[in-house]
Amino acid sequence: MSRILLAEDDNDMRRFLVKALQNAGYEVTSYDNGLSAYHRLREEPFQLLLTDIVMPEMDGIELARRASELDPDIKIMFITGFAAVALNPDSAAPKHAKVLSKPFHLRELVTEVQKMLPAA
């Protein structure tokens, strides 16, 4: 089963995302800030980091950069209302990251995750 680490500071959004991804057959571990998510990444491997960009303690771009250093094979998807920040070539965002702009439908999220990860 593919494992996803979700970092999203909005409690309602995080709850909806976890439920949608679990219903699609993924194992999801979630955190409400980037720093806690980073500490978990250091403990065990995940196939996908799904992260908001604007979060307390550590933003999603920094989290993604550090995740890529820990595991160059980890797939990264940003979910954000600030897509221009992630797409800015001057940002430290990993170049292979996918960006899904808010608002999006949960089905769209699941479809994009399924494209990035092996079938659950």
From TrEMBL:
Alphabetic keyword roster: Phosphoprotein
InterPro entries: Bact_response_regulator (IPR050595), CheY-like_superfamily (IPR011006), Sig_transdc_resp-reg_receiver (IPR001789)
Record domain Response regulatory: where: 3-117
Top-level taxon of origin: Bacteria
4-aspartylphosphate PTM sites in chain numbering: D52
Pfam families: Response_reg
GO biological process: phosphorelay signal transduction system
Listed NCBIfam families: RespRegCpdRBruc
Protein name: Response regulator
